[in-house]
Specification:
The protein is an alpha/beta fold and 291 residues long. The protein has helices at 2-6, 8-20, 23-38, 44-57, 63-87, 91-97, 102-110, 128-137, 152-162, 173-184, 216-224, 257-278, and strands at 118-122, 143-146, 167-170, 188-192, 204-206, 209-211, 228-235, 241-245. Helices cover 53% and strands 13% of the residues. The mean pLDDT is 87.
């Protein structure tokens, strides 16, 4: 199921259905689908969400509460899916669903090259794709780093993001150099940083436990001599997707490169932890972050 919804057929089907199905009906079907999916406790995706929620909510959280938390994650994911795909080709509706705040307006203004550059990192919280597109339609300029060699559904999603004016670049050594130069010149670079990299040897503490999370953003920000800003989407009581934006995190230099990555990487992760704790049921991470 996960592979299908990431495929070109799955994404194309979602786009087509999202345009024609009314949102309330879409929410209903998404909720039914989420409840059905959660019953498949042997599914690797369900097990991953369960293990992640146990760590975020605390190891002592009762099993029945964790089950409800896992269901909450998939129901919220379904709502995000409906809202994004139903409004994907309607910039006005996207902006209505993601309010403009003074902090976001300031970030948009700073994204132009007459201001200092920055590396913006994000967790997989709520409808980040929607808030990113809405910000881009409002004028946000940024280079977005995505998975290397995208195929199928990933490529379609990247093509959609590119239509807003965002510079979508699948990661590669050449793109890394380009991004560093971009930030040195005053530009913004954006990427997600909470999906584990199993081949990675170095670990970072996240919610008090070691995880093989990426650290390339730390290396690149240090080399470009720019701060890191954490941006996290969150659905609030008004049923709109708000973008929470941290203060710039100035990176600390250290003679030991590994220690430099650990100190700065964990400083960024502590800010991400604070955002996830606000709405743990909106953390849409379908891979086990801790082993």
């Amino acid at each position: 199921m996960q592979r299908f919804f990431k495929s070109s057929v799955g994404v194309s089907l979602g786009l087509g259905l999202g345009r024609i199905i009314p949102p309330n009906l879409g929410y209903f079907f998404a909720t039914i689908g989420a409840k059905f999916l959660v019953r498949r406790m042997n599914s690797p995706m369900v097990r991953a969400v369960q293990s992640n929620q146990i760590v975020v909510r605390g190891q002592q959280t009762p099993a029945d509460e964790i089950k409800i938390a896992v269901e909450e994650v998939f129901i919220h994911a379904g709502r995000c899916f409906v809202d994004l795909y139903h409004n994907l080709q309607d910039p006005i509706s996207l902006k209505r669903l993601s309010p403009l705040t003074p902090r976001l307006q300031q970030l948009i203004s700073q994204s132009y090259y007459d201001s200092p550059g920055a590396f913006i990192v994000a967790p997989h919280l709520s409808n980040f794709d929607l808030v990113l597109l809405a910000a881009a339609y409002r004028g946000l300029k940024a280079q977005v780093l995505t998975y290397g060699n995208p195929t199928g559904g990933y490529k379609i999603q990247n093509d959609i993001r590119s239509q807003t004016g965002l510079d979508i670049t699948p990661v590669s050594p050449q793109v890394h150099k380009q991004a560093i130069q971009n930030m040195r010149n005053g530009g913004f670079v954006i990427t997600a940083v909470d999906r584990p990299v199993r081949s990675k040897k170095q670990v970072l503490n996240f919610f008090g436990y070691p995880s093989t999370l990426p650290a390339g953003h730390i290396r690149m920000a240090v080399e470009a001599n720019v701060p890191i800003i954490v941006a996290a989407a969150q659905m609030q009581a008004d049923q709109l997707y708000h973008l929470n934006i941290s203060d710039p995190i100035e990176l600390v230099k250290h003679l030991d490169p590994d220690e430099e990555i650990r100190i700065n990487g964990e400083a960024v992760l502590r800010v991400i932890e604070s955002f996830i704790r606000k709405t743990p049921g909106q953390w849409l991470m379908y891979y086990p972050v801790w082993l």
